[in-house]
């Protein structure tokens, strides 16, 4: 039973990253899994419930990665964050944040709340990386780490969107420039 639930979450995650939340239905999942739609409703009474479960899984991953890398220097932690976006770029997918934020106003309130939680979680980690990296002399930037995190995050999100349209090298170029602008020494090391 747990395997079926996890498979549904995994498929929904993939649909959200490739199509968007509003562009798939339980029928799409049912067809792939050879299930009836009521079987999906058994696990997730509403699509919002499914979306929340997808984000909860992502939040677990973010927390696990943050805990795993918390002893690294700030620039190395940021490298780990960038690597996640890089992997999305290479698989021609959008991260959950980039996929769900354009549809935000169309989502039910409790799913909007979960999207906000995910965005804050990523931004908090990113700001902590930037603050630590600047204190260690590894980053140079003006303003607060929180404001810089917003700029880095927006660059990552837009690079994923534009790389879908203009080719994967767009991600490399945009992120390379963004990291160079804060004097990050690991520009382009995430490619391999």
Description:
By secondary structure, the chain is an all-alpha fold. The chain has a single domain, classed as Tetracycline Repressor, domain 2 (Orthogonal Bundle). The chain has nine helices and no strands. It has helices at 2-18, 26-33, 37-43, 47-69, 74-90, 96-100, 109-135, 145-166, 169-181. α2 (26-33) crosses α3, α5 crosses α7 and α7 crosses α8. The protein is elongated. It starts with a helix and ends in an 11-residue tail after the last helix. The model is unreliable at 187-192 (pLDDT under 50).
Structural class: mainly alpha
Distance between the termini: 38 Å
Approximate shape: elongated
Q: What is the domain tally?
A: 1
Uncertain segments are 187-192
* Arithmetic mean pLDDT: 89
Computed over alpha carbons, the radius of gyration is 18 Å
The percentage helix is: over 70%
In CATH, the topology is named Tetracycline Repressor, domain 2
Name of the level-1 CATH class: Mainly Alpha
Q: What can be said about the biggest beta sheet?
A: none
Give the number of helices: 9
Tally of strands: 0
What do we call the CATH homologous superfamily? Tetracycline Repressor, domain 2
The sequence of SSEs as H and E is HHHHHHHHH
